[in-house]
Specification:
Blueprint: H1 3-11, H2 22-30, H3 35-51, H4 59-71, H5 83-101, H6 110-119, H7 124-146, H8 172-182, H9 189-199, H10 204-223, H11 242-258, H12 277-288, E1 307-311, E2 317-321, H13 324-335, E3 343-346
Parallel strand pairs: 2-3
Antiparallel strand pairs: 1-2
Helix pairs in contact: 1-5, 3-4, 3-5, 5-6, 5-12, 6-11, 6-12, 7-10, 8-11, 10-11, 11-12
């Protein structure tokens, strides 16, 4: 049957609660379409989901991601899809939230999950740009080496400017640090941001987090410049109450910030469903969503029929992968940052 149908059948009754059209989601999950068409469908569905909250401006982020990803496939053939992946991760997260998190008393807010699940990879073009520039400088340095030159190697360093500063004078990094502290995670936000810049690499989780927070902050500044903690409506009737920004937007962006940090960040404190349910759900869904992801090795990705998921009667997630190497990789990714005491990843019996 395949994991897509498993997930759809399990969540079709709650899709409307998450702003989804059941018919559109079913077609997306079941119809065979080319890579570009699936990206276009995913973007259209993302816009529809966000319309209810007046955050459809974020569609521009995803449009750009799709355009860049499509354009770089010849330059960076090893790049994986992150647009369709975002929607599939979001739907998988609904399944885990409804069947695992909520019954155990650790449910994640639906709007927070929309932001975190749908936009956790929008900063990926920045990370990809670094890889493309590395290929360029590697060729220059190889030519230098071949002719026997002892001149220093050349390299590019990408430095984001202004993305961490919000319009009302607040620091994104400070707000995210406060949230991670509330979750009890031992992550130094400023240190990770500086390390990203000093190392010359781009972390798509950090860049996604800061860019989403930056864009949403612009809209709050437009309609609620004094950041009042009361209903402030735009002409379409959407509320821009500062409480929503602090209690929903910042947590979602904080979960995005940590979703692909290096394992050393979680050596002392792993993300758990009890302590940091939103961050836990995002990391778990991101790791498990491994099917139908095009890459250089597998242009069509691994078939959804190779995967299954189930929640046992005693509240355990059992994720089955019909490939021992993929199973090992997924387990390593999960163990690097999560408390997986009630999660099992296995090959078919």
């Amino acid at each position: 049957m395949g994991i897509n149908i498993e997930i759809f059948n399990a969540i079709k009754g709650v899709l409307e609660d998450y702003g989804c059209s059941g018919d559109r989601i079913k077609r997306f999950l079941t119809e065979r379409r080319g890579f570009s068409k699936r990206q276009a469908d995913a973007i259209s569905i993302l816009e529809e989901i966000m319309m209810a909250h007046g955050k459809q401006e974020l569609r521009g982020h995803v449009n750009e991601l799709a355009r860049v990803e499509h354009g770089i496939r010849e330059l960076e053939p090893r790049a994986r899809d992150h647009v369709v992946h975002a929607l599939l991760s979001f739907l998988l997260g609904i399944y885990i939230n409804e069947k695992f998190m909520i019954p155990l008393g650790h449910g994640v807010d639906k709007f927070q999950w929309k932001l975190a699940g749908l936009f956790h990879d929008v900063g990926y073009p920045a990370e990809t740009a670094r890889g493309i520039l590395h290929q360029f400088t590697a060729q220059i340095n190889q030519i230098k080496h071949n002719i026997g030159s002892t001149a220093p190697d050349v390299f590019f360093r990408l430095t984001p400017v202004g993305i961490d500063q919000l319009t009302n004078g607040s620091s994104s990094l400070h707000l995210i640090q406060q949230q991670l502290d509330r979750w009890g995670l031992a992550v130094d936000v400023n240190l990770e941001y500086r390390d990203m810049i000093d190392s010359g690499r781009m972390c798509h989780g950090i860049m996604s987090s800061l860019s989403v927070l930056y864009v949403i902050d612009l809209k709050y500044q437009q309609y609620n410049p004094h950041r009042e903690h009361q209903p402030i409506y735009d002409p379409s009737g959407i509320s821009w109450d500062q409480s929503y920004f602090e209690n929903d937007v910042v947590p979602a962006c904080s979960a995005i910030f940590v979703h692909n940090l290096q394992s050393r960040c979680f050596n002392n404190v792993a993300m758990s469903k009890q302590r940091a349910p939103l961050a836990f759900l995002l990391r778990l869904s991101d790791c498990l969503q491994d099917w139908n992801r095009p890459s250089a090795e597998k242009p069509r990705g691994i078939s959804q029929c190779k995967y299954t998921i189930d929640i046992t009667t005693n509240g355990r997630i059992v994720f089955t992968v019909d490939d021992a190497a993929r199973r090992q990789k997924i387990m390593e990714d999960l163990e690097a940052s999560l408390d997986i005491s009630d999660i099992e990843v296995r090959c078919p019996l």
